[in-house]
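Q: Hi! First time doing this. I have a protein sequence and I read that you can turn it into a structure. Is that right? Here it is:
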Amino acid sequence: MRAVVLRENHLSIENVPDPVAHPGSVVLEVAACGICGTDHSIYRNRLLPDGAILGHEFAGTVIEVGRGVSDWVPGDRATVLPVPFCGRCELCLTGKQNLCRFGLTNTMGCGGDPGGLAQFAAAPVTSLRRLPSSVDAKRGAVVEPLAVALHAVNLGDVHPGTRVGIMGLGPLGLFAGMIARSHGGLTFGMDVRESRVDCAHQLGLGAFNSEDQADERIRDLTNGGPDVVIEASGRPESIERAARLARVGGRVVMVASYHAPAEIKPGRWVTRGISLLPSIAYTPHEFDAALDMIATGRIDVGPLVDATTPLGEIQAVFDRFDTQSDAIKVLVDPGL
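A: Yes, that's right. Below is the predicted 3D structure, encoded as structure tokens:
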């Protein structure tokens, strides 16, 4: 099969052996695989060894089942929960599966089994979630990032009337804004890229250019600042900016990949009573809830996922990841 293989200074399209359906697992023909900041960070910072196959946001069709698999047959469509929560550690047993150390270090495409940037991928049946007829593969591939955003919104305790600020209007920021609004939150976002501000407006979200007095305008519209600020830009300097934006007694949720030091002023956080809440991954319940949001139309991800990119253009996608202005959620079709 053709796959995207991580090499020392580039991404290589190579022919590699097809995966095998071991007992309790299936092989999927991958129909769509999303690219996110984590993938780019792994590539840019060389966080995995040569030979790794990235891609943890994907969906496809079952083509082979392993011994002992009875609930899945070839032709079934599925999205993949890529984090193999152990279910036995204290974190898993107390509802904090998103912090399971085994799960996070063995996530498919992120240090665990090979991911979905390939024509085929093997996955245990415990990781499969059936796609209803109302959800195509492209929408199925964004269940995973939507679940990440849902966990951040839940961590921020967004409920009707909560004033929410979103810093960074990439996929996670936009998803968080859409979910917060569905929870009854009053939501305003900011981003330095005008195309992403425009996209937020098209989705019905309030948004401003980060360089156009966005902080002051959001503080005015929220009567003193948001109750919760969701920092989704991944810019280390934005963490302190989020603390300045939040109202006294507010909360800052970090839901991005950070691989550079951040300078913060503890005095501001302490005297203003700002809580800092790091958000990573999701629980199995939140993953299932994200799929349900898409299936029922509660969250319409369609405007963000209509376009797909051929596998052969993957290097260009990664090269322009930080500068591309028009694309919001990049999906790759390994069959193209």
